[in-house]
Amino acid sequence: MNCDVLVVGASSAGMMAAISAAEGGASVMLLDRNLGRLHHDANTLFEGMAAVSGIEIKDCLLKKELEGMRILSPSGRGVTIPAKGYFIDRDAFDRHYLHLAEKAGVALLSGEVRSLHLEGNGRTVGLKGVQIHARVVIDASGVQSGLSEKAGLKPMRHPEDIAWAMEADIEYPYLGEEMFFQYWVGSMAPGWKATFSPAGGDRATIGVFVRGHGQNVQPFFDRFSRLFKAQKASQYKNIDRMKVLSVRRGGDPICVMPGEMVADSLMVAGGAAGQSGLAYSMRAGTICGIVAGEAVLKDDVSHRSLFEYVRRWKREFYWQYRMGRSSLQTLGQMKDEEIERLICGLSGKGLVSKGPFFKKALYAGALVTMIRPQTPYDLLVNLIR
């Protein structure tokens, strides 16, 4: 079998890469080992991120529209950020983008990669009983696949900083009718966050995303579950009877920074490249697919040609990811008492400003500095690191 572009992994980034390459005139195959039963964890999206990434929000793909988010300290003190957000029906979302891929001419294949070799003017991918030769292979197979690493790339600069996650679907009367996502920060989820996401009706999710403590984050989840019930006890009678319907585990590359994203005839996008965030990974997949299609049409799939993907991605996102890593490193160095003082000081203040990324960052940074003056120094040190 032959094609111009083979995308490995029907992740959000993978589907967008396949669609974009096909719309650019390339013959495209999209391969996933679970194509008939995709199950992706990311289910929240904010309007601003969707707009930047060019994602159209359709009502049929949503479970609930929310008014914004609340950032909560360990004791439950909060800062409210009015930013419209969405709890996505992820199964419907994935079906929609697979349909768009087929409509664009993408061939969908079910299977698992067993080998990947540079061969002639492309790469040969071995499946069970089948080989596919592609001019360009795009690895969009997620945080834990290791496909591009086997080909000699180091797609994440700091893989040790993956936030390992445990998330549960929960049920309790009217719990899903709340109007704000809630993110706890502090020692209950070191290095990142604990979450509550209302999904409408009686359904919601809670989870922890933890850096620096290995992949088994069950103890942190259990601790947060107790904290969550204690915080909600005044709103919901008998919240201890909350049902856990299902549990998922995985990794979030929120803080790893993308590393090597291209080689001859090989590109990496989405979680596999440390491109965290549903909207941002979809945009990265789009850029990746466009460049792959252009390279095939130019008959130049060398590292030099494909590096245009890296240049375009960096223009749009590099400093957002760099500042995000620095901010999370700084947060991870703060004790719960410092977090309490910071959130208490920010409570009631407007944290959102209009304008480009750097203007927003400066505005938020100025507010934080008024309460915790050493923050700019800590951010700078972590930025340099």
UniProtKB/TrEMBL annotation:
It comes from the Archaea. Coiled coil: none annotated. InterPro entries: FAD/NAD-bd_sf, Geranylgeranyl_reductase. Pfam families: FAD_oxidored. This is NAD(P)/FAD-dependent oxidoreductase. It comes from Methanothrix soehngenii (strain ATCC 5969 / DSM 3671 / JCM 10134 / NBRC 103675 / OCM 69 / GP-6) (Methanosaeta concilii).
